[in-house]
Design brief:
The complex is a heterodimer of chains A (272) and B (263). Chain A is an alpha/beta fold and 272 residues long. Chain A has helices spanning 53-60, 78-83, 102-112, 117-130, 146-159, 176-193, 204-210, 244-259; strands spanning 10-19, 27-37, 42-46, 68-73, 76-77, 87-91, 164-168, 196-201, 213-217, 224-229. Chain A has a six-stranded mixed beta sheet with strand order 6-7-8-3-9-10, with helices on both faces. In chain A, strands 2-1-4-5 form a four-stranded antiparallel beta sheet. Chain A starts with 9 loop residues before the first strand and ends in a 13-residue tail after the last helix. With 263 residues, chain B is mostly helical. In chain B, α6 runs antiparallel to α8. The two termini of chain B are 37 Å apart. Classes of the chains: A alpha/beta (272), B mainly alpha (263). At the A-B interface, β6 and α3 of A face α7 and α8 of B.
Chain lengths: 272, 263
């Protein structure tokens, strides 16, 4: 009966992360982190540089372990979710493998899962169509532009039928034009696939444009200081970027960030 | 049209200066020998060298083939052993920690003298000792570079493999070993001309008298300096062929290296 109950995609409860515990260079990265991401929801994590938003993402991905607290991903412990490849991950560096063609890059997680070749090829073709790069299947990654490489990385992250996408500033290295285009593409891909996304960024407009909900974090030790419901609906276009509601939410997030450190200029948060 | 013209101009700009330098150098050499009336048993004229090169091209070609084959066999064998050896030792951390510093040290020793020992192990007319000598030298160059490659991991890629719950063996096969390819082929490119030199020098330590090394020393010690220099020219051509061949191989196998080169 458990499967019939719609469980949330991610449940983070009472999580604390301390690096170099007990040493002189001990760092309290995160404290008192509690939040839930519903299935199909798009959540942005925003906060100043060094607030631990990437650390939080890596905790959800079980790439590091929490000092205290529990993380439940896809209804199971984060560790099990990683072993089952329940999530896909993409970061600022696409991390594509130079010696593999674009399609073979996308097929790598499937190879590790033991899929046979024809099934892998069919899936990579499907994913390439999704990110609109079908004609580049047999190209090498270094022959593509930065934006195209990121699209391949997203295709790879979604290839193994992951319903959860963890993204750490995936468009951070792209120019503004490409970045806006990629944001629109990501929203289209998510609405086509129903993927849940946890998206780390330090750009306020990016966080608001993409997300259903923005989680605002304080400077180190990072804690959640505000949750802003964006409420712009799912049909977002270039017009959304010029809508009054959009600016209202941007202002709301900005003030939430400022509230974390009254009077201080916010370091490391991008107003673009 | 204009692109082709520009490309031609660009390659000319690269090729022309060294060619001009070479031609001028040879011309000055010729002029110096003629004007100063330098005796042919001291330094021969470039034209005399060419003369003896074409008098009996087979003579030089045969010696080039003997030394070239020795170098090639040693280069291939040493590269394979160096690569396999590095991957196997680095599979086990403790072994790697013991072997790696040793390899770096041994690679710096002028080990050509070992060929004397190797020669004694095989028949007098055998080339095996020389080939093994080349293999040993190449082995260490390749071993050290491939080891560097195995440890040169892209953090994003390693994290991805972790997120795929990949086993250490899968990480080795899918990421770490392919990551060594640029290092392997850089090492082969470095080792190729060295292989020729080692093959040539190995001939000074006994064995058959048919390679470039023995022919050069024989002719230079005798009266036929021009022929000795003709053999030197042959040796240079073999060395250049090895360098060109290994560069082409690198270009074909690791094309992304055209953009990035490891240290």
């Amino acid at each position: 009966m458990d499967t019939a109950v719609p469980n949330p995609a991610v449940v983070v409860s009472g999580v604390r992360k301390v690096f170099n515990r007990g040493a002189t260079n001990q760092v309290d990265a995160l404290i008192d982190i509690d939040f839930t991401v519903q299935r199909g929801e798009f959540v942005s994590l925003i906060g100043p540089s060094g607030c631990g938003k990437s650390t939080l993402l890596r905790l959800i991905a079980d790439l590091i372990e929490p000092t205290d607290g529990t993380l439940v991903v896809n209804g199971k412990p984060a560790h099990q979710a990683r072993l089952d490849q329940d999530y896909g991950i993409a970061s600022q560096h696409s991390g594509l493998f130079d010696w593999r063609t674009v399609e073979r890059n996308i097929e790598l997680p499937l190879e590790l899962k033991g899929w046979d070749k024809s099934r892998r090829r069919a899936r990579s073709a499907e994913m390439l169509a999704l990110v609109k790069l079908s004609e580049f299947a047999t190209h090498m990654p270094w022959q593509l532009s930065g934006g195209m490489q990121q699209r391949v990385a997203i295709a790879r992250a979604l290839a193994a039928h992951a319903e959860l996408l963890l993204m750490d500033e995936p468009f951070g290295a792209l120019d503004e034009m490409t970045r806006e285009h990629m944001q629109a593409e990501l929203l289209r891909i998510c609405s086509e696939t129903g993927t849940t996304v946890v998206f780390v960024t330090h750009s306020i407009p990016e966080a608001v444009y993409l997300a259903d909900r923005v989680v605002v974090m304080s400077p180190r030790p990072g804690r959640i200081t505000a949750m802003v419901d964006v409420g712009l609906g799912r049909d977002r276009s270039e017009l959304t970027r010029e809508a009054t509601e959009f600016f209202d939410r941007v202002t709301e997030v900005r003030e939430a960030l400022r509230g974390t450190h009254v009077g201080d200029p916010i370091m490391g948060v991008d107003d673009r | 049209m204009t692109i082709i013209a520009a490309r031609t101009r660009d390659s000319l700009a690269i090729v022309l200066p060294p060619v001009i330098f070479g031609v001028v150098f040879v011309a000055l050499w010729q002029a110096w020998v003629e004007i100063e009336d330098v005796q042919p048993y001291v330094i021969p004229k470039p034209t005399a060298i060419l003369q003896s090169l074409f008098d009996d091209p087979n003579l030089v070609t045969k010696a080039c083939v003997v030394t070239g084959v020795n170098a090639l066999v040693g280069l291939i064998l040493g590269s394979i052993l160096g690569f396999v050896g590095s991957v196997l030792t680095n599979r086990f951390r403790l072994v790697a920690d013991l072997v790696n510093p040793l390899a770096v040290t041994v690679a710096a020793v002028p080990a050509v003298v070992i060929v004397g020992v190797l020669n004694n192990m095989y028949a007098l007319d055998s080339q095996i000792g020389r080939r093994l000598m080349v293999s040993i030298a190449v082995f260490f160059i390749v071993f050290v570079q491939v080891t560097k490659g195995l440890r040169h991991n892209n953090p994003t890629q390693m994290e991805l493999m972790q997120s795929y719950a990949a086993s250490p063996r899968q990480v080795l096969a899918k990421v770490r070993v392919p990551n060594t390819m640029p290092f392997l082929f850089t090492a082969i490119r470095t080792a190729a001309p060295i292989a020729v030199i080692i093959a040539l020098v190995s001939e000074y330590f006994g064995g058959t008298q048919d390679g470039l090394g023995t022919k050069i020393s024989g002719s230079l010690n005798g009266s036929n300096k021009a022929l000795g220099f003709a053999y030197v020219v042959g040796g240079s051509i073999v060395g250049l062929l090895f360098f060109a061949g290994s560069s082409l191989l690198e270009y074909l196998v690791v094309p992304w290296q055209r953009r990035r080169r490891p240290g």
